Amino acid sequence: MPVRTPSPAVLALLLVVAALSGCAQVGWLAVSAGDGFTCGIDADSVLECWGYNPDGTLNPPAGTFTSLDAGKDWDACAIDTSGVTRCWGPASSALLNPPDTALTSLSVGSGVACGIDHAGAIGCWGDPLFTAWGCDNPGCDCHSDAICYVNAAPPSGKFTSVSVGSSAACAIDTSQSLVCWGDNSANSGGLSTPPGGRFTAVSLGDGGACALDTDGTAQCWGAPRLTAPPEPLTSISVGLYEACGVDLGGAVHCWGEGSDVSPPPADTFRSVSVGYLHQCGVDTHGDVQCWGEEHDGEATPP
């Protein structure tokens, strides 16, 4: 699911710090948990994937990369060190032809991905059937048809981050306000009506959404409404009715619907990513740790 990774400048700084401290590597730079599979950027900035492999999911492109996101439909996208977006997955995936525009960040949802270019504009691509947010398609059932929800017509303006879920998307503009579009039905809990205030991070999953305000407090909305912990957080990720965040001390907190939330490891982490039945994070030693359900090796990093 959507994951914020260090910028190229930060990655370079991490490498310098590692060299000065006598470490040969800084470990994994990023990890993103998807639907039954996981991908990460290793210490050499190379992509690696593991878990379920339906026709290309575990075969990422060669090269060096700065950020990535694993989606719901066994596909993923990443931005290489020259700013080019590369996507991979099953041959039927509509994400395999991303735009030529250089992007600074991206997010992969269900059949659609969105990214932010250097001017701060949002562009989206994906399944041509997913062409209109809302319920204006003939015969569309607004309570069940994802085809009614995912589109490629994001709002105009300048934005700093974007997150695409299964039926809606949200972005943070340069004034730190949340702007959301997509499913806003009662069934979704008003997913496209975000809270007011100023925010630094946002994440959408399959049904719920959470964002961090400028104090680090998590605010969640949608259906189900995920009740966040009171601790200030530095990052957040939402998956299938579950969310996790990293607090100021590096501890991971997870919360969600019912009693099926998987407890995270007790170690300290740099980042965390919530998939659909498993979660992964990069700890402060640079190792990837995963937890939750495992069916095809998605929670067993290399």
Question: What does this entry show, briefly?
Answer:
By secondary structure, the protein is mainly beta.
What report would you give on this structure?
By secondary structure, the chain is mainly beta. It has one domain: Regulator of chromosome condensation 1/beta-lactamase-inhibitor protein II (Methylamine Dehydrogenase, Chain H), CATH 2.130.10. It is 4% helix and 38% strand. The chain is built from 1 helix and 21 strands. The strands form 7 sheets. The chain has a 3-stranded antiparallel β-sheet with strand order 1-2-3, with no helix packed on it. Strand 16 and strand 17 form a beta hairpin. The longest helix has 13 residues. The chain is globular.
User: If you average the pLDDT, what whole number results?
Assistant: 84
Alpha carbon gap, first and last residue:
19 Å
Physical arrangement of strands within the biggest beta sheet: 1-2-3
Q: What is the element string, with H for helices and E for strands? A: HEEEEEEEEEEEEEEEEEEEEE
The rough form would be described as globular
Our count of domains comes out at 1
Task: Please give the count of helices.
Answer: 1
Q: How helical, in percent, are the residues? A: under 10%
What is the name of the CATH architecture? 7 Propeller
Let me know the largest β-sheet. 3 strands, antiparallel
Show unreliable segments.
Answer: 10-25, 129-152
Quaternary organisation: single chain
Name of the top-level CATH class: Mainly Beta
Tell me the name of the CATH homologous superfamily: Regulator of chromosome condensation 1/beta-lactamase-inhibitor protein II
Number of strands: 21
Strand portion: 35-45%
Summing up helix and strand content along with how strands pair, one would put the structural category as mainly beta
